[in-house]
Design goal:
Among the domains are: 63 residues, no CATH class; 135 residues, Rossmann fold (3-Layer(aba) Sandwich). Helix content is 37%, strand content 14%. Bound molecules: 2-acetamido-2-deoxy-beta-D-glucopyranose. The site of 2-acetamido-2-deoxy-beta-D-glucopyranose has 2 residues, from loops. Belongs to the methyltransferase superfamily.
C-alpha cells in the first residue's frame, strides 16, 4: 500500500516536473530568435521514460479485476461489483486507482473499430471512474435495426437489435427464462407498478391520485437504478416523462430501455445526477438503493436527490431493504434529515431466503420535499 502510494507520489512529482520543464522549454523557445524545429532535450526524454516505467510498474502491481459478468454467480451473496460503491468518488478521482483497467480501456487503435470491451467500461464506471475518457474509435453496431416504433413500451423486444457478445444469454427469451423478474419479459412487466398486494406497494394510479389531491403536478421524474425502464414505461402511458438510470450489469439493460422508446442514462449511483437543481417532480429509488451502499455515499445520494427535486417534489423509496435494527438506528434518521413530509411509510419483513437469513425488512416510503426552503 505504502509502496503504491510512494510510486503514485513519484509519478505526480515526475509529472509536475515534466510540465514545468516543458513550460520552461516552450518559453525559452519563444525567446530564441531563429524558428528552428526544437530538438527534444535529453532530460525531458528521460523524464518521460521514468513516467512510462512507473505506469507500467503500477499496472503490474494491481491484480487484474475479474470481468463484471463472471462475478455475478450467487444471487444470495452481495454482487462484488456493488461492493465497489464503497469508493466515494465525487470527481472521477478513482480512475487512477485502477490503472490496469484504464490501461486496458485506452489500449485501442485510433480511427478503427473499438475493441469489444463494454465490460471493461462497465467495470471502470462501477469503480467510480466516470466520466470515462473519450476515445477516437468506432463502437460496433448490430447489423439489424428496428424499422418501426414499438406499439407500446410493453411490446416484445426485438432480439436482433443489439450486440449480445458480452453476455452469457444471447436473447431476451433466455434472460426471461433465467429469471422472469429481471425485467425482460414484457408479459410480466405489463402489470408492474399497478397492483396492490401489500402495504409495500404504491400503485401508480394511487400515487397520481395522492399528488393530484395535494395539487402537485407530476411532469418529469428520475428513476434511479430502473433496470429495463418499466417504471418509465408505465408513466409514459400516463403522459409523464421519466428518465431511467441503469447499468449494464450482466445484461443489456440500457439497450432494452432504448428499444422501448425510453431514455436510459448510463450513470452509476455515486455520480452526481446530471440534472439541474429543482427541475424534477419525482425521484424514485428502486431495489438498487439499499443497505449495500455505504452510509456516507447514501447521504450524498439523498442530498443530491433533494437538489434536483423541485419544491413540493416527491422522493419515492420503493422496497428499500436493510437489516431491521439498521433501519431504525441508521437509515430512518438519515432519511429524516431531509425534513420531508411523510405521505407514506410502510415497513414489512423481507421474506425471501436472504431476507430471512439476514433479518431484513423492506421500507416503501413516499416523502414530499418542503415547498420552499
Ligand atoms: C395522454 O395524452 C394523450 C394525447 O394528448 C391523451 O389522449 C391521453 O388521454 C393522455 N393520457 C392520460 C392518462 O392523461
Amino acid at each position: 500500500m505504502g509502496f503504491t502510494m510512494g510510486l503514485n507520489l513519484l509519478l505526480l512529482v515526475a509529472m509536475v516536473a515534466t510540465n514545468i520543464l516543458s513550460l520552461y522549454h516552450l518559453s525559452s523557445n519563444l525567446q530564441s530568435k531563429p524558428p528552428v524545429a526544437p530538438p527534444v532535450p535529453d532530460h525531458l526524454l528521460h523524464q518521460l521514460q521514468t513516467i512510462r516505467a512507473t505506469i507500467n510498474h503500477l499496472t503490474r502491481l494491481q491484480p487484474p479485476a475479474p470481468p463484471a459478468a463472471a462475478t455475478k454467480k450467487s444471487t444470495l451473496s452481495i454482487p462484488s461489483d456493488l461492493l465497489l460503491y464503497t469508493h466515494l468518488s465525487p470527481i472521477a478521482s478513482s480512475c487512477k486507482d485502477h490503472p490496469d483497467l484504464l490501461y486496458q480501456y485506452m489500449n485501442y487503435t485510433p480511427f478503427s473499430l473499438c475493441p469489444s470491451d463494454s465490460s471493461v467500461a462497465e467495470s471502470l464506471i462501477l469503480r467510480g471512474c466516470h466520466p470515462l475518457p473519450r476515445r477516437r474509435c468506432f463502437s460496433k453496431t448490430p447489423s439489424s435495426i428496428p424499422t418501426s416504433l414499438p406499439k407500446t413500451p410493453f411490446s416484445t423486444l426485438p432480439e436482433k437489435a443489439l450486440l449480445w457478445n458480452s453476455y452469457t444469454c444471447k436473447s431476451f427469451t433466455c434472460l426471461s427464462q433465467k429469471n422472469p423478474n429481471l425485467g425482460f419479459d414484457m408479459k410480466v412487466e405489463g402489470s408492474r407498478f399497478l397492483g396492490f398486494k401489500s402495504d409495500l406497494d404504491l400503485p401508480i394510479p394511487q400515487f397520481l391520485q395522492l399528488t393530484k389531491s395535494s395539487k402537485s403536478v407530476i411532469r418529469l421524474a428520475l428513476d434511479i437504478g430502473g433496470g429495463t425502464g418499466t417504471f418509465a414505461a408505465q408513466m409514459k402511458l400516463q403522459n409523464v416523462t421519466v428518465v431511467t438510470t441503469t447499468m449494464n450489469l450482466g445484461a443489456p439493460y440500457s439497450e432494452a430501455v432504448a428499444l422501448r422508446g425510453l431514455l436510459p442514462l448510463h450513470v452509476p449511483l455515486q455520480q452526481r445526477l446530471p440534472v439541474f437543481d429543482g427541475v424534477v417532480d419525482l425521484v424514485r429509488c428502486g431495489h438498487a438503493v439499499n443497505r449495500w451502499i455505504p452510509l456516507t455515499m447514501m447521504e450524498f445520494l439523498f442530498f443530491d436527490v433533494d437538489r434536483v427535486l423541485r419544491g413540493g417534489g416527491y422522493l419515492w423509496l420503493d422496497h428499500f431493504f436493510s437489516k431491521k435494527a439498521d433501519l431504525e438506528k441508521v437509515f430512518q434518521p438519515l432519511i429524516w434529515k431531509l425534513n420531508y413530509r411523510k405521505v407514506k411509510w410502510a415497513v414489512a419483513n423481507k421474506n425471501d431466503a436472504s431476507g430471512v437469513k439476514n433479518g431484513e425488512v423492506y421500507l416503501t416510503a413516499l416523502l414530499q420535499k418542503p415547498v420552499s426552503r
